[in-house]
Specification:
By secondary structure, the protein is α+β, with helices and mostly antiparallel strands. It has 2 domains: 161 residues, Methyltransferase, Cobalt-precorrin-4 Transmethylase, Domain 2; 100 residues, no CATH class. It is 18% helix and 31% strand. The protein has 4 helices and 17 strands. The longest helix has 16 residues. The C terminus is likely disordered.
């Protein structure tokens, strides 16, 4: 939501020489005398949008000039855009075609100069994407970008590879299952079951654990497999069945870092 005093805020950030940051970027329109988004505007927009989406997200302000002072990029003047409503419309129309995969969390708005209607600055807010990396689809570009400090830079090969790996699910497998009796008292027998969980992929499996969902004919120690209380094993009540079986679930982060996939292992 743009505040009613939005134009005053724009003037204030110039007056205080607001610095660019990893999530704030000031841009000039190539030709601010008209509102049509030309080829170069679309190229700059695609680079800016994908860089924010591939990084922490951020806000791009078109119509504010930026200068470098002692190595710091800071707002220096308002270079308002004529036909700001047309420019906002063109940007909204072009956004779906400027990134692959398409960006989902983008908001476009504008602030008019109250003294000169239809002149102003454009605000484009981009959220950090869970579908990264995004590639610029501007004509003649087809590259990946990210934010580095206050700059938009092309991603290196290892950056792109790492970003793709974040989208790939780790592959987990059970090793050889072994059992052994650890004694008991009275009618209660205690046994230990070892089932090593191995990551057989090149992707890091974050926060993996094994849950014993059902056990018929026995009870699971509430403190975990080695009685130290550090494992997230949740005890389920016994259920009646003709066979004893285990249902084991692997969990790991998905693109939202809270998702999961499940595979079950059963033994008679």
């Amino acid at each position: 939501m743009i505040p009613q005093n939005g134009w005053t805020e724009i003037q204030a950030l110039v007056a205080r020489a607001e610095q660019e940051t990893v999530d704030l970027d000031f841009k000039n329109k190539v030709d601010p005398s008209h509102g049509a988004a030309d080829k170069k505007d679309r190229e700059i927009l695609a680079q800016t949008l994908t860089a924010f989406a591939n990084s922490m997200g951020g806000l791009a302000v078109f119509g504010v000039d930026c200068r470098t002072v002692a190595g710091v990029d800071e707002a220096s003047a308002v270079n308002e855009i004529s036909g700001i409503r047309r420019f906002a419309s063109d940007v909204k129309t072009n956004i779906p075609n400027l990134a692959m995969p398409r960006l989902e969390d983008v908001t476009v708005d504008f602030i008019e100069n109250p003294a000169q209607p239809d002149k102003g600055v454009l605000l484009v807010s981009v959220g950090r994407s869970e579908r990264r990396p995004h590639r610029s689809e501007a004509a003649g570009d087809k590259r990946y970008y990210k934010r580095s400090g206050s700059n938009t830079v092309q991603m290196e090969h290892f950056d792109v590879e790492d970003a793709f790996n974040r989208m790939t699910s780790a592959k987990l497998e059970f090793g050889k299952l072994t059992t052994r009796n650890s004694g008991g008292a009275g009618d209660i027998e205690r046994g230990l079951i070892d089932f090593p969980l191995m990551n057989v992929s090149l992707v890091t499996a974050r926060f993996p654990f094994v849950e014993i969902a059902r056990l018929v004919g026995g009870l699971v120690n509430a403190y975990g497999v080695n009685d130290n209380g550090h494992f997230a094993l949740r005890q389920s009540p016994p259920r009646t069945a003709s066979d004893i079986f285990w249902e084991c679930r692997h969990r790991h982060p998905s693109r939202s870092e809270t998702g999961r996939f499940q595979s079950c292992l059963s033994s008679p």
